[in-house]
Amino acid sequence: MPELPEVETVRRQIAPVLEGATILRAEILDVRLTRPVEPEFVADSLVGERIATVERRGKYLLWRMASGRTLVVHLRMTGSLRHAPAGSLPADAYRRARVVLDTGAEVGYRDVRRFGTWELLDEGHLHPYLASRLGPEPLAPSFTAARLGRLLEGRRAPVKAFLLDQRRIAGVGNIYADEALWRARIHPRRVAGELGLDEVARLHRAVRAALRRGVELQGSTLRDYATPDGSSGGMQREFHVYGRLGEPCDRCGRPIERIVVAGRGTWFCPHCQAP
């Protein structure tokens, strides 16, 4: 599933194509994409909208329209955007939507497993929609170690589960949670609310470092993820623990192990991240 670095990479690449352009035509080819709203209604509503900015909140892409409405695009597991700056998009059996812009560019949305969503919200609905689903942005200046400490207070869940909860911290998923915990030398099953001040500070630095490196390398391509120009990310070449069962730890040389935490496969070093 695309996490913060992947979605931010998509935003950075697609924003120059979309921003300032007006939607001339829109097609939504999959009823599941806009459910329960009829796809024809959403497509017709998009025609004539000028896209002012493309932003990101957590794992959501926000196409903010000059009218005040916002198209909220959630890629979920296998969603991605493709663009043809001048000309038609190539055929794609997994295309679920397409928009044609007044610049001549086309943008397509593809989704192999069809879990992604498009929701067109007005200003009054956008803020409560996001606020009910998302915690603070971990790369924002306001996300300090002290704030992380306050979020952790009283939490009895494993720290890995805490990191995966989008209502606590926005944008962190399975890959970057494992990588951050390795960097912080914290076992994924540690009780979140029992971390000491030094551990909280290490975790704060580690989360931000893992996400920043992911953004620098344009995300992780393991199977379906690709950037809007069709290229792959590079973060998978720098994983310290994720997916590396039995391989030597980059820090101590001991074999990486795998357990299940919060229903998710979890990779860690049993020596560097002792319970």
Give your account of this protein's structure.
- The protein is of the alpha+beta class.
- It folds into two domains: about 5-130, MutM-like, N-terminal (N-terminal domain of MutM-like DNA repair proteins, Alpha-Beta Barrel); about 145-270, Helicase, Ruva Protein, domain 3 (Orthogonal Bundle), CATH 1.10.8.
- It is about 30% helix and about 20% strand.
- It contains seven helices and ten strands.
- The strands form three sheets. A four-stranded antiparallel beta sheet has the order 1-6-7-5. It has a four-stranded antiparallel beta sheet with strand order 2-3-4-8, with helices on both faces. A two-stranded antiparallel ribbon has the order 9-10.
- α1 (about 5-20) packs across α7.
- The longest helix is centred in the last third of the chain and has 20 residues, at about 195-215.
- The protein is globular.
- The protein starts with a helix and ends in a 7-residue tail after the last strand.
- The mean pLDDT is about 95.
